[in-house]
Design brief:
The complex is a heterodimer of chains A (117) and B (113). Chain A is built from no helices and 11 strands. Chain A is mainly beta and 117 residues long. Classes of the chains: A mainly beta (117), B mainly beta (113).
Chain lengths: 117, 113
Amino acid sequence: GAVVSQHPSRVICKSGTSVKIECRSLDFQATTMFWYRQFPKQSLMLMATSNEGSKATYEQGVEKDKFLINHASLTLSTLTVTSAHPEDSSFYICSARALAGGPYEQYFGPGTRLTVT
Amino acid sequence: AQSVTQLGSHVSVSEGALVLLRCNYSSSVPPYLFWYVQYPNQGPQLLLKYTTGATLVKGINGFEAEFKKSETSFHLTKPSAHMSDAAEYFCAAINTNAGKSTFGDGTTLTVKP
């Protein structure tokens, strides 16, 4: 099956620093990647959608200058949380949609737990 | 706008009992529908999906769901719950025109021994 990896799985950083999270589709090419944020006991909140080679489309209320998304290739997307603050602490999950295969099926990464101190 | 409603944020069943998790969607066009399972500190995994064709779809781990257009529902069932089924379950819909998935709020399934 299609596998999506995320790195790192957990990261702790100090307030004011930036953190980069990588999302890779390991065995398929992803035309579209999605970044979600999830708070404890809550559903997934879509932050942005990115297509390879294009600028990401951010959901309303998500600061594009704070959450920088780059989708440089069909297998790699990165989310950079700039000038992180404690309120940015959350579980970040990426997902990828395959170039070919099941229609609109999304494959999720294992998530990255970000803690800002 | 498309929406997905999961009735019951918490469902508790005994081991061996029937599991029924409810999902209703609101869409002007029948969407593609999905059920995902999420274990603690992990990303969601696809359980099953409905796109076209047979309205009763079978997924992994003995789960199945039936698409009922007249009821705008896509309820998830499993005949006999196992302790390992305890997790968070999300129903999702995607309108092929919009291209984005809409997720329900999730249902926490607890399985009692």
